């Protein structure tokens, strides 16, 4: 399936805030944050198209921009690609292998932890989009 054509790139400006909400919910889920916390990683998500960085302190289950400098792993991804990944419409490993997404640092434990959490993250992200009125970012048939 090809990515949706968004009316304007401005539609994607909210993706970092939506991702922040997603991980706040995931950390609260029963068992949802345990596997992520066990990685011991502070993950910086660099939004390639927005000049914005979001940091996830996985062990402490916090989402904060201020932690980006202390990140032990980084992922650089466009907001449209992250939106697709969180709706199970982008194979992250393949995107990394093809150079569409760049990673550095202790990314292997993060990818290993994200894999089994994909269903949960996708389900929660869909709820976040709907609850925040961002159905324009939903990918059909997901």
Walk me through what this model shows.
39% of the residues lie in helices and 17% in strands. It has 5 helices and 5 strands. It has helices spanning 15-28, 34-37, 79-85, 92-97, 107-131, and strands spanning 42-47, 52-57, 62-64, 73-77, 102-105. The protein has a 5-stranded mixed β-sheet with strand order 3-2-1-4-5. Helix 1 (15-28) packs across helix 5. The radius of gyration is 14 Å and the shape is globular. The model is unreliable at 1-8 (pLDDT under 50).
What's the helix and strand layout?
Blueprint: H1 15-28, H2 34-37, E1 42-47, E2 52-57, E3 62-64, E4 73-77, H3 79-85, H4 92-97, E5 102-105, H5 107-131
Parallel strand pairs: 1-4
Antiparallel strand pairs: 1-2, 2-3, 4-5
Helix pairs in contact: 1-5
Short synopsis of the structure:
The protein is of the alpha+beta class. The chain is built from 5 helices and 5 strands, in the order H-H-E-E-E-E-H-H-E-H.
């Amino acid at each position: 399936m090809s990515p949706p054509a968004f009316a304007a790139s401005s539609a994607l400006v909210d993706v970092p805030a939506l991702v922040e909400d997603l991980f706040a919910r995931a950390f609260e889920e029963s068992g949802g944050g345990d596997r992520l916390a066990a990685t011991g990683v502070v993950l910086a998500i660099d939004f390639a198209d927005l000049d914005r960085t979001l940091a996830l302190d996985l062990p402490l289950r916090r989402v904060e921009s201020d932690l980006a400098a202390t990140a032990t792993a980084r992922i650089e991804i466009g907001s449209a690609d992250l939106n697709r990944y969180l709706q199970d419409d982008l194979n992250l490993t393949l995107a990394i292998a093809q150079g569409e997404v760049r990673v550095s640092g202790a990314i292997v434990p993060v990818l290993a932890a994200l894999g089994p959490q994909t269903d949960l993250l996708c389900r929660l992200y869909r709820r976040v989009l709907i609850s925040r009125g961002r159905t324009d970012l939903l990918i059909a048939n997901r």
